[in-house]
What does this fold into?
Amino acid sequence: MSTETISRPETIRKIAPKYRVLLHNDDHNSMEHVVQSLVEVIGLTQPQAVDIMMAAHASGCALVITCVQEHAEFYCDALQSKGLTSTIEPES
It folds into this structure.
């Protein structure tokens, strides 16, 4: 009996590009609403959400999360549905 080696082509996996979900400061929503929306949509803790809201308030824009494009689009749309101003951009 002889042992035969079967050669299989290697699977090459590409790493999906990452996208940043950004929260923009606005004058329309209360700080409480922004924090609650971040907790509900992204699943952040309240302290994390407060930090992001304060960063957006102080500098005009804050990073919420970095993830694959499909998730970034989902989060951005969900934040917008809560009345927040949110955009996405490629990570690099």
